[in-house]
Structure formats: structure tokens, C-alpha cells
Design goal:
Helix content is 45%, strand content 14%. The chain is of the alpha/beta class and 775 residues long. It has five domains: 198 residues, 3-Layer(aba) Sandwich (Rossmann fold); 74 residues, Arc Repressor Mutant, subunit A (Orthogonal Bundle), CATH 1.10.10; 199 residues, P-loop containing nucleotide triphosphate hydrolases (Rossmann fold, 3-Layer(aba) Sandwich); 161 residues, Orthogonal Bundle (PCRA, domain 4); 46 residues. Helix 11 runs parallel beside helix 13 and helix 16 runs antiparallel to helix 29. The chain is globular. The structure holds a DNA duplex (15 and 10 nucleotides). It comes from Bowdeniella nasicola.
DNA sequence: TCTATGTCTACTAAT
DNA sequence: TAGACATAGA
């Protein structure tokens, strides 16, 4: 807030008084970034260098100096959380006028534009947004229609390839034209049909949101001009994570490729750090930030290297890890806040041992006034959270997992949202087919296939085909099926009518009630269904809260909101008092006083699937860099010598990233795991310590993994009864029987047993409640 | 058509 | 290990 003194002069225009205050406390580079005007600006912002401060102050400064009006500003981020934080911080600088800016994610900005310009897209304004699961479901249906063998042509792979196409702005026609192999041709064909199906359902997948906005702006000059006139200041956060489609979207918004003299290019600011680019797998390309000066020839670049977050020891470790990446723009973080504590290392025997160490360490940190809310634990893959959760439950430490099985991916939530989408968009085939027989209403595979075939033959949506069926236009449906269809159809229509003047929460109640969804769950004796009801109550709370924050928000707005929420959006604010567990990807952009980077093994981090490829390995290294630079005061690096995946224990060598860190910044509590020390008496002992030049090679990793793969369930074998043909047995529910045949041995043994009345059962002896009768 | 049971396969990362 | 899918029997 500006000091009150500046108001007293009376002479000074209000704006410039504010402006000066905004520059106070900035370092020279930050000052330069905030005050630069005219040409496109690239801010290369190292981790913790005050990036958000620069962005928010730059916006506020432009407003304060009268160079911009709030409604001329669009600031784009990748997560809603980042957007919310930015809006909040700008608001604290400039007051309520901040509400007139667009501060949002790429995806929600696009939805907003598409819903507004739906006539030119063209699409229904209440179009549905499909998440990855929905998209894969639709692709699976498409592949089925093409009669593709799912083993040879994997729908998931197809879905991924289509996503890649869209991120590159490649249309189905382009894809068909450039297809060489049969496989590529099949993909191109599936892509075309998949897109047709989306269009018919009035739906878009995540990638469409960007691609179709770009197409909208490119193909409709008058629409493009509207937005260019409006957005005179375009700011993009995390620019290193943009893919080609997003890059083109920014260009289109700025007007960089437009000769239209009526609207000069907008003022563009991008902020990013190529060392933190970790989304190549979804099409992001570092090229965009590295070539910014070529893309925008008169661009100005500012580099922020002073770090205000971490201690020097932490930065030294992070710098050492990232410096192994070839061809990066030289950049070295530094701080003037002192060395701080050393990085602490620990080599555990297993993932359970690792979890134990982490828990006990957090426990003892409490004596130094470190609270659980100050601590975060990172891992490479979601599955790693389990061992940690187990120990926290056992020790009673409060924790919270961010991501993983996400709220909006739960079955019951997806079902409920499918109902809502079916209400809002009667042509949404994926959603309607999802709930067609949920809860069970006697509409099985056959009914679905008949309706779907009719829809296909008449080129109408699945929803329209249901209406046709109810009108008696589809022959060959049993009376019982017709009744079920009529009821289903009536349910949707009734709720649709109700929905015209009801809030999202009320509509949700109505549809869950009228469809019998909640009643079915309540009647179930599956204990899981109890928590499902609770989750639906939670969804209701979300809908009710939505109405509070957005009194005019209709069902479409609500669906838009929930379609685009991200994992990171649910991160608790500051001191929720819980330990935070999440993947490194989710951790980007956050910071914590104490950080545990766990699973530092070759094969886990870097991930086994990235180890053989130089560019993927480089991305893993950037990911490690992100992990390390989240820590403010204390950083722990832990690894497990043995880790189980799919119930199979594997031995894993230390991560190569550990070897890169200078010895003098690490304090090893335990450098060699117990099992390794034992092993090293019979093998070369120096191999397992790092700092001694050991770098695990891929072939080593593989061999060790194979050797460590041992089945873990053999103790059951002794309790399996030994049977042979002719033996009499007693089964808990089938009663008395005679063994006809036994196949397989021990653990895999299966017996065919005749229980009389011609009832021959095949029973897994491992599980069957079977007693051998003597005599 | 539904349900239970057994079998198969998958764990990168996520807007 | 677990969830997704196939199959058989009711």
C-alpha cells in the first residue's frame, strides 16, 4: 500500500503517486521488467526470483501510469490457483478495478470466448467439455465403429495421438494427407470420425478448446478484431509450458501476424523459465521461450537470477542438478540470505523404511517449531503416496494428498456430472450413454446398441435417437425396454424443464432424486456406496457455494467451472496444519519451508521410461530442479534401495541426480542402505556409494530389476489342500462333492468338483472354502 | 439383463 | 495390488 504522505501533496496526480510506490523494494532487474514499455517483453525468471511480484506490479504499474485500463488487460496462467492468486495480488495493489481484467487459465479463457462467439464457431453455447476420460471413451466407441481390433489399435494410443495433432493445430484433413503407413492412415480416419462425433454431441475435448479458439480468431477477422481492440495488454505466465496451439493463440490475441492497420499489436509480456519446463508430454515446447526473440524481433529480455526463497545450500544442489542439461541458457540462481542448513540425505531399505524415516524426521522437527503445515513431500508418481499414507495413518500425523484419485474423477461424481451435462446438452452422447443404464433400469448392451445403430444410420445424436425410440420410430425394441426408455426420457425432460429456473444445486438434487441414483446407493450394502453418498453431498456443497460466489451462474457456467478445475487448485491455503503430499508436477509454482523429495532412485526418478532418451532425461532433470527449488529452509533427499511395484519388489540404484550434487552441501544420515551394505561384501563395495564417480547405467538398472523380481505370495502354498481325482470334499456353500480333476499346482491349483445334480464347479484351491474328507 | 467370479493388465506427469 | 474387463450362470 502506498504511504499516505504521497496523497498530501495534492499536486501529484493520483496515478503517479501510486506508481512510485509500486517500484519500491524492487531489485534493478525487477524494476526494469515492471517499467519496460513498448516492445514485447520476455522475463526469464529463475525459481523463486519474484516472478509473480513482477507480473502483478507490472500490471498495476501500467494501470497507475495511465498506460492501460483494467479491462484492456488479459493475464493467462496454467492453473486456476495461479490465476486466483494473481487476481488477488493485483487487487491488493489496485483495488476493485482488478475485477475488470481477464485473469484466467488458457482453457477457461478459451471457453469464455467460445461460449460468447458460439455462432461463429459454430457450436451450441452450452457445449460440453470432455475430460481425458470422456475423450478416451468416445475414441473407444469410434474405434469400435471402425471395427478396429483394440489389441492392434489401442484406443488410448489413438486418443493420445489425436491430442498431439490438436496441440500442433493439425486438422483431420492434414493428418490424412501426411499419413504414410497404414497405421497412420487408421489414426487419421479415427481422428476424423472422432471429431465428427464430438461435433454431433456439441462437445469439445481439452485440446479443442485451444485449437478451435485459434481457428475462430484466424477464420473470423471481425471476431479477432473485437478481441484485439479489447485486449491491449497480454501477459502470459509459465510461457515455457506453452504448446504450439497456445503459442498461436497468444499470437492471434496479440495480433502479431495481422497486417490490419486498424489495430496495432497489443503489448505482450511473457514470463517463464526454460529450466522449469516439465510438460513436454502434453505438447509443450521450450522452443517457444527460447526463440521468443526471433518470433518477436524487437523483443526485450530481462533475466531474474536473484532468489528470494531458498538458502544457498539448496540452490547449490539445484544448480548442480540442472547444470548437467546441455544447451541451456546459462543461468545461476543466487541468494544473499546465507547457506542455511545442509541438505539431508537418507538411503532407506524399502519404501516403508523411507516413509518411517520421513515420519520420524517430521516428528522431531516439531521440537524446532516446524509444523506439519510447513512440510511437503514430493514424489514422481502418484502410486508412491501409499507407503507414506500408511505411516501417517499409523503415527497419527495429519496429512493431505493433493491429486491422485481426484474428486472429479470419482465414479459417482462423474455420473452426477454426466446427468447434469445431459440436462444442459441433450446431444451429449458420451454423457447420456454413461448414465443410460446407471442406475440399472433394464437398458443393457442390446438396447444401447440398437439405439446407437439407429442414431448412426439417421445421422442424429444418441439423445435424439432416444426421443425417436420413445415416439415408436425404432423397431425391434421389447416392450420392457420401451418402458425403460420412456421413463429415462421422461426423467431427463422433467429435470430439463425444472432446470430452466433452478440453481445448479437444485438441479443436481432433482436429477439424483428423480433418477433414483441416490436411492440405489442408499439401498446398497456395499460400504463403498456410503462414502459415495457423502461425496455427492460434497458436490452439492460445491454447487451451492458456486451459486453464492456467482449468483447469476447457470448450469452451463457451473459445468464449465468444474470441467476445468485442476489438482493444484485444491491445495490448502497456507496453514491448514497438514503435511502436503503431491507429485512434483503438482508442486510447480509452490513453496514450502520443509521439503522431502522422495524416491530418488534411477527408475523412479528419473522414471524408467525416460532413462534411455536424452530429451526425456533432460525433462526429468528439470523436474528434479523444480522439486529442489520448492524448498525454503530445509531440503531432504530420500531414496529406497528396494521398492515394490505391482506387488513385485525391485532393487533400484540411487538416482543419478544425487550423484550430481556436491558432497559439501549434503549431510548423509545414511548413505548406503542396509541391504546394499550386505550385498557389497560379495560385490565391489565402492559401486554403491556416490560421490565416488559411480553412475548407474541403464543396463545395470535393468539387470538389477530383473534379479530383484521375486513373487511374494508363496507362504500360502502350505495351506492349500492337496487333492486328487476321486477324493470327497466338503464345500462351505455347495456341500458335499467329489473331485473330478485337478489342474495346476500349489498356488495355481484348480479343482473340478461334482456336487451332484450335475453341478460341476471349477474352484481355485487357494480361495475355495473346501475341506478334504478322510475315508 | 444382471451379478458374481475370475482373469488380465497396468503406473509416468495433467489442463 | 487394484481396477477394468470377460464370461458364465441365474
Amino acid at each position: 500500500m502506498p504511504p499516505s504522505a504521497v496523497w498530501e501533496s495534492g499536486e501529484v496526480p493520483e496515478a503517479s503517486a501510486d506508481a512510485d510506490a509500486l517500484l519500491a523494494g524492487l531489485n534493478p532487474q525487477q524494476h526494469e521488467a515492471v517499467t519496460h514499455t513498448g516492445s514485447p517483453l520476455l522475463v526469464v525468471a529463475g525459481a523463486g526470483s519474484g516472478k509473480t511480484k513482477v507480473l502483478t506490479h507490472r500490471i498495476a504499474y501500467a494501470l497507475a501510469t495511465g498506460r492501460a485500463r483494467a479491462d484492456q488487460v488479459i493475464a493467462i496462467t496454467f492453473t486456476n490457483k495461479a490465476a486466483a492468486e494473481m487476481r488477488e495480488r493485483v487487487r491488493s495493489l489496485v483495488g476493485p478495478q482488478a475485477n475488470r481484467m481477464w485473469v484466467s487459465t488458457f482453457h477457461s479463457a478459451c471457453v469464455r470466448i467460445l461460449r460468447r462467439e458460439y455462432r461463429d464457431v459454430p457450436i451450441r453455447s452450452t457445449f460440453s467439455v470432455y475430460d481425458m476420460q470422456d475423450a478416451q471413451r468416445l475414441m473407444a466407441l469410434t474405434c469400435k465403429r471402425l471395427n478396429l481390433d483394440p489389441k492392434q489399435f489401442n484406443p488410448k494410443l489413438f486418443s493420445r495421438r489425436v491430442s498431439d495433432f490438436k496441440n500442433e493445430l493439425i486438422t483431420p484433413a492434414d493428418a490424412a494427407a501426411q499419413a504414410r503407413t497404414d497405421f497412420e492412415k487408421k489414426i487419421a480416419e479415427a481422428y476424423r470420425l472422432y471429431n465428427d462425433a464430438l461435433q454431433q454431441a456439441h462437445a469439445m475435448d481439452f485440446d479443442d478448446l485451444i485449437m478451435r479458439t485459434v481457428q475462430l480468431l484466424q477464420n473470423n477477422p471481425q471476431v479477432a478484431r473485437t478481441y484485439r481492440r479489447r485486449f491491449r495488454h497480454v501477459l502470459v505466465d509459465e510461457y515455457q509450458d506453452t504448446n504450439h496451439a497456445q503459442y498461436m493463440l497468444v499470437r492471434a490475441l496479440v495480433g502479431a501476424d495481422d497486417d490490419d492497420a486498424g489495430v496495432p499489436p497489443a503489448e505482450l509480456t511473457v514470463v517463464g523459465d526454460s529450466d522449469q519446463s516439465i510438460y513436454a508430454f502434453r505438447g509443450a515446447t521450450i522452443r517457444n521461450i527460447e526463440e521468443f526473440e526471433k518470433d518477436y524481433p524487437d523483443a526485450h529480455t530481462v533475466v531474474l537470477e536473484q532468489n528470494y526463497r531458498s538458502t544457498q545450500n539448496i540452490l547449490s544442489a539445484a544448480n548442480a542438478v540442472i547444470s548437467a542439461n546441455a544447451g541451456r541458457r546459462a543461468k545461476r540462481l543466487w541468494t544473499d540470505s546465507g547457506d542455511g542448513a545442509k541438505v539431508i540425505g537418507y538411503a532407506a531399505d524399502s519404501e516403508h523404511d523411507e516413509a518411517r524415516f520421513i515420519a520420524s524426521e517430521i516428528d522431531s522437527l516439531a521440537t524446532e517449531n516446524v509444523k506439519p503445515g510447513d512440510v511437503a513431500i514430493f514424489y514422481r508418481t502418484n502410486a508412491q503416496s501409499r507407503a507414506l499414507e500408511e505411516i501417517f495413518i499409523r503415527t497419527g500425523l495429519p496429512y493431505r494428498v493433493v491429486g491422485g484419485t481426484r474428486f472429479y474423477e470419482r465414479k459417482e461424481i462423474k455420473d452426477a456430472l454426466a446427468y447434469l451435462r445431459a440436462i444442459a446438452n441433450p446431444d451429449d452422447s458420451v454423457s447420456i450413454r454413461r448414465i443410460f443404464n446407471t442406475p440399472r433400469r433394464g437398458l443393457g448392451d442390446k438396447a444401447e446398441a440398437t439405439v446407437a445403430a439407429y442414431a448412426h444410420d439417421h445421422d442424429i445424436s444418441f439423445g435424439a435417437a432416444i426421443a425417436a425410440a420413445v415416439d415408436g420410430d425404432i423397431p425391434g425394441l421389447a416392450p420392457r425396454t420401451m418402458n425403460a426408455l420412456r421413463d429415462f426420457h421422461a426423467t431427463l425432460n422433467e429435470v430439463r424443464e425444472f432446470a430452466t429456473d433452478a440453481s445448479p444445486a437444485e438441479i443436481l438434487d432433482a436429477v439424483l432424486d428423480r433418477s433414483g441414483y441416490v436411492a440405489t446407493l442408499r439401498a446398497s450394502d456395499d460400504p463403498q456406496d456410503e462414502s459415495r453418498v457423502e461425496n455427492l453431498a460434497e458436490l452439492h456443497a460445491v454447487a451451492a457455494e458456486f451459486r453464492e460466489t456467482q449468483p447469476d451462474g447457470d448450469l452451463g457456467d457451473f459445468l464449465e467451472r468444474v470441467a476445468l478445475v485442476a489438482d493444484s487448485d485444491s491445495i490448502p491455503d497456507d496453514d491448514a496444519g497438514q503435511i502436503t503430499l503431491m507429485t512434483v508436477h503438482t508442486a510447480k509454482g509452490l513453496e514450502f519451508p520443509v521439503v522431502f523429495a522422495s524416491g530418488m532412485e534411477d527408475g523412479t526418478f528419473p522414471h524408467a521410461r525416460s532413462i534411455d532418451d536424452a530429451s526425456q532425461l533432460a525433462e526429468e532433470r528439470r523436474l528434479a530442479y523444480v522439486a529442489l527449488t520448492r524448498a525454503r529452509e530445509r531440503l531432504y533427499l530420500t531414496r529406497a534401495a528396494v521398492r515394490s511395484a505391482w506387488g513385485m519388489p525391485q532393487q533400484l540404484p540411487p538416482s543419478r541426480f544425487l550423484a550430481a550434487i556436491p558432497e559439501e552441501v549434503v549431510d548423509w544420515r545414511r548413505e548406503v542402505a542396509g541391504a546394499e551394505a550386505f550385498r557389497s561384501t560379495s560385490e565391489t563395495s565402492s559401486r554403491l556409494s556416490f560421490g565416488s564417480g559411480y553412475r548407474p547405467k541403464t543396463s545395470d538398472t535393468r539387470r538389477v530389476q530383473r534379479a530383484g523380481a521375486v513373487r511374494a505370495t508363496e507362504k500360502d502354498e502350505e495351506t492349500i489342500p492337496s487333492l486328487e481325482a476321486g477324493v470327497r470334499v466338503l464345500h462351505d456353500s455347495y456341500g458335499l462333492g467329489t473331485v473330478l480333476e485337478v489342474t495346476g499346482q500349489g498356488w495355481r491349483a484348480v479343482a473340478s468338483v461334482d456336487f451332484g445334480d450335475g453341478a460341476v464347479k471349477k474352484l481355485m484351491l487357494r480361495y475355495a472354502p473346501l475341506t478334504k474328507l478322510d475315508v
